Amino acid sequence: MIGAERRERLLGRLEQHGVIRLEESAAELGVSTMTVRRDLEALEREGVVVRVRGGAVATVKARSFDERQGVDDAAKTEIARKALDLVPTSGTIAVDASSTSGHLLSQLRTVDDLVIATNSAHNHERARAVRGARAILLGGELEPRTDSFVGPIACAAAAMLNYDRFFTSASAADVEHGTSETIIDEAQVKRELVRASRETVLLINSAKLERRATAVAIAWAQISIVVTELDPADSRLDALRPLVELR
C-alpha cells in the first residue's frame, strides 16, 4: 500500500471515530507503528490533524451539527448512556448545541414535567420528542458554522431561567484552561448557562482531551461531573481526577 493510500485510509478512520490510534491503525494497515507515525507527521504538516499521545486527532475547527453528528457515534452513545441517570425527571435543565447532548436527549424517553432549554434547533426538536418535557428554544442569531443560536439575545435568554443542571460538550478541553470552543460567541452562551445552573455536567469524547480551541469557555472549578466513553479508572483521565467527578 502506497503512502497516499495509507493516509487516505487514516483520514477515513479519523472521519468515522474522531481519532486515529497508532497501534490499531498499524494493525489494520499491516504496517509498523513507525510508518503510521510518519504518515501522521505528514498529515500534521498539511494541517489536517494534530498529533497526540498514541495517535492523532482532527484539527479543531467549527463544523455543522450534521457533520458532527456522524463522528464517533459509538462514543457519543456510550457517553449519553452513562449520563442518562444524571437527568432529573422534573425541574429545569439546559442542554448545549452539541451532537453529544443530542445523543443524550435521544435516549431520554419519559420525564415528569421537565423543562429542557437549548440554543440548538436540532436539540430542541429532540427535546420536544421527550414525553413529559417542555422544550424551550433559546433564540438569537444563528451561527451557520455550528447551527447554534448565539449573540446577545441568546445570552439574555439563557440567563432568564434557573437550571438544575447544564449538560454541555466542548470543542476541546485541557487541564490548564478547562473547556474551549471554536466559536467565541458559542463560548459566551455557555458561560451564561453555567452561571445560571446549579451544576454543570461535561459530556466529552476522550479524543477532545489535552486540546485547545480558540475561545476559553468553562473552568474546571465550574464543572461538577465529567462523562466520557472511557472507564473512569482509565489512566488517560488521571490528570482530571483531582479536579472533577468522573463517570
Automatic annotation (TrEMBL):
Instruction: Keyword check for DNA-binding, yes or no.
Output: yes
Pfam families reported for this sequence: DeoRC, HTH_DeoR
The cross-references to InterPro entries, in alphabetical order and at most eight, read:
Carb_Metab_HTH_regulators, DeoR-like_C, DeoR_HTH, NagB/RpiA_transferase-like, Tscrpt_reg_HTH_DeoR_CS, WH-like_DNA-bd_sf, WH_DNA-bd_sf
Q: Where is the signal peptide?
A: none
- Molecular function via GO: DNA binding; DNA-binding transcription factor activity
Kindly indicate whether the keyword Transcription belongs to this entry. yes
* Gene3D superfamilies per record: Winged helix-like DNA-binding domain superfamily/Winged helix DNA-binding domain
Q: Which residues form the HTH deoR-type domain?
A: 3-58
Keywords (A to Z) from UniProt: DNA-binding, Transcription, Transcription regulation
Recorded protein name is Transcriptional regulator, DeoR family
| Species this chain originates from | Herbiconiux ginsengi
